[in-house]
Amino acid sequence: MRGLLLSLGAVVLAFIAAPLLIVVPMSFSSAASLEFPPPGWTTAYYGAFFGDARWTQPTINSILIALAVAVLTMAMVTPATFALVRHRFAGKSAVNLLLMLPLAVPHIVIAIGYYAYLSDLRLLQTFPGVILAHTALSVPMAFLVLSASLKGFDRSLERAAMSLGASPAATFRHVTLPVLWPGFAAAALFAFIQSFDETVVALFVSGRDSMTLPRKMFDSIRTTADPVIAVVSTLLFFTVAALVILPMLWRSFSRSRS
Amino acid sequence: MSAPYLELRGLGKSYDGRTRALDNVSLTAAKGEFITFLGPSGSGKTTTLMLVAGFESASEGDILIEGRSIGRVPPHKRGIGVVFQNYALFPHRAAAENVAFPLLMRKMPKAQAMAKAAEMLGLVGLERFGGRYPREMSGGQQQRVALARALVFDPALLLLDEPLGALDKNLREQMQIEIKAVQRRLGVTTIFVTHDQSEAMAMSDRIVVFDGGRIQQVGAPLDIYRYPSSSFVARFVGDSNILAARLTDPAGGQAEIAGIGTVRVPALPAARAGDAIELLLRPECLKPGSGLDNAARLTVDVIVHFGDSALVTGHAGGTPLRARLEGLAAQGISAGDTLPLSWATSSSHVIGRDAAG
């Protein structure tokens, strides 16, 4: 029974992990197109990726867009979260629902909506257009993460700070923000990653000058099935994994140190 | 007596505009006084503290310190030190930084603030713990840091909101003594909130008993214990027998209790014969034997030995009665025994009447 369960677990794990990891050997493949198993080994495609502006430019675009999305998302989500978690007001549940809506609506529907909307605003295929659309998608996740950590925040810390002479602004700067810092960081990280690997909306609203990396990959696989895609996938995979795993490692390290 | 240092004037608080969490709370305190707010949860004691601290605003009434209203002053400008039940130490700052925080908020230079914080930590016996983070300290140590932090800026008032609730019994008693010593040494006017009556008895100059959003009684601990103004106070502070009696001779001090018979009570010249009264008899005032003014025969239902004392529960006639006897005197008593008990008239109290009658 135990052996059966173990092997079942192994199969499930392999099923989930294999597609994630298969891109790694493919990125070192010497084949002229994507194929597995690789006929031989080379790092030439890594050189091709880093030396080709058609790849590096979308990478830089993606990073810039994701950074802007993280900043804009936090600027909007922070006050919204404090208002929704800490205050009662008329229409609160409607606002809550509205914030979560992008999570419920299919991406393709949002993409079409933004396509029409941004073209009216003449923002189609521009950086601000992509940033706006991605921010809308990032808001629910960032809100969920931040409100979870805000709900767990002990308000007597703020009361203590105020009784000790800290103005509301000083209380936020010296107590609320430093204590909630991991929550803020996680929310911003989710916003960044969400934008960085978003594809569907980017296909519709990003253009030649504002092309994001996932869109470039999509275009590329339709035309050439170039193994550079495997290189990009490998790099993306490790970057995102590092962004998610490093804070966890750092936290358990600083906990074991104390 | 000079003008009061602290005055609460007709404080009221309602959260929904209809039900009153707090109703007409008025109180004065002298400088340096240690006052305890005692009451069950929801009695209004913590609400009153929150109003004084400024975390919530009163629906009615005002708060004055040295004659000046602070009712509209925001909490960070009140200069009132607060110690919270869960300590509320800043987890991202070491103990000394926590204590220095109020000084830094007052624009004191950092070196000077850290020196004063170290001095204050010394006063609470933590001179070597300045570099520790709250999570690295025990509950009692965190509590001392919180106390040092609330006192370091010479607050106009010190408020303590059930600060010992999370500590175990021995530590709690030790902290009671330490808090009291530091408070006396600094002479800071203090309000201490608790639902633990023994804590209130042990620490306070005066106790304010709260119930249902109102002040029930204000007085020195022993006065409250001996002369409670209501059966609620009598039951809440200390263990009690509250006996229903009927006055037969008010001026002469005689009353009738079902199952016990005629007893002497403190004289009540203003009352009338036939009035129903409640007679408070503390269990430790009942002595074995029949040597005192009034006698009763107790049929024992349960006896619990604590070593230094024993609690005997039973009834006299149909009237339930509890007696706390000295440990040795209670040896050999068992359930079903009939025990002669007696009490001095002066140790009893007619609830709701003045001590003088």
TrEMBL record, chain A:
Annotated TM spans: 63-85, 97-117, 129-150, 171-193, 228-250
Domain of life: Bacteria
Keyword Phosphoprotein annotated: no
Keywords on record: Cell inner membrane, Cell membrane, Membrane, Transmembrane, Transmembrane helix, Transport
Locations listed in the record: Cell inner membrane; Cell membrane
Pfam families: BPD_transp_1 (PF00528)
Domain ABC transmembrane type-1 span(s) in chain numbering: 59-247
Membrane topology: Multi-pass membrane protein
Family named by the database record: Belongs to the binding-protein-dependent transport system permease family.
Record's protein name: ABC transporter permease
Species, as recorded: Teichococcus aerophilus
Lineage: Bacteria, Pseudomonadati, Pseudomonadota, Alphaproteobacteria, Acetobacterales
UniProtKB/TrEMBL annotation, chain B:
Signal sequence extent: none
Any one Pfam family match given in the protein's UniProt record, by short name: ABC_tran
SMART domains reported in the protein's UniProt record: AAA
The entry's keywords: ATP-binding, Nucleotide-binding, Transport
Keyword ATP-binding: yes
Domain of life from the UniProt record: Bacteria
Domain ABC transporter as annotated: residue spans: 6-237
Membrane-spanning segments: none
Gene3D superfamilies membership: 2.40.50.100, P-loop containing nucleotide triphosphate hydrolases
MF annotations from Gene Ontology: ATP binding
Statement: the UniProt record of this protein carries the keyword ATP-binding: yes
Protein name: ABC transporter ATP-binding protein
Phylogenetic placement of the source organism: Bacteria, Pseudomonadati, Pseudomonadota, Alphaproteobacteria, Acetobacterales
